[in-house]
Specification:
Low-confidence stretches: 7-19
Structural class: mainly alpha
Order of helices and strands: HHHHHH
Distance between the termini: 58 Å
Length: 146
Amino acid sequence: MRRIIIGSAALFLAASLASAATPGDAIKYRQAIMNTLSGHVAAISLITSGKVEHQEYLLSHAEALAAGGDQIGKIFPAGSGNGKTEALPLIWQEPEKFQKAADTAKAATAGLLDAIKGGDKEAIGKAMKPVFDACKGCHDRYRKED
């Protein structure tokens, strides 16, 4: 009886996991991550430009941005290019080039985090440019125009 219960639980878990990974869900997850990245970049920009006084949150925004940057190369699984998405098919047609762009974004967001941890305003300003460039470069090549 114990084997039947354990076996049934394992099958239920496997079925649940398999059904959760639909292309539509992958697109929604990807869009949530990208919107989050955009929000953290905007928050960091507002704080570092002095437009808002929330210096105490700068590090948490940078940590979240770097964590999201780490995901970029992983959130475009095969089969998730169809549906309501702004991703161009080129992502899946040239996966090595796309991965290189994702790695650039990952390195840029990690570099910004390091600069923010260092606390040098000039270094933080310099570290923002590679983040903006990585976002723009990837969007220019792999995202549908608005």
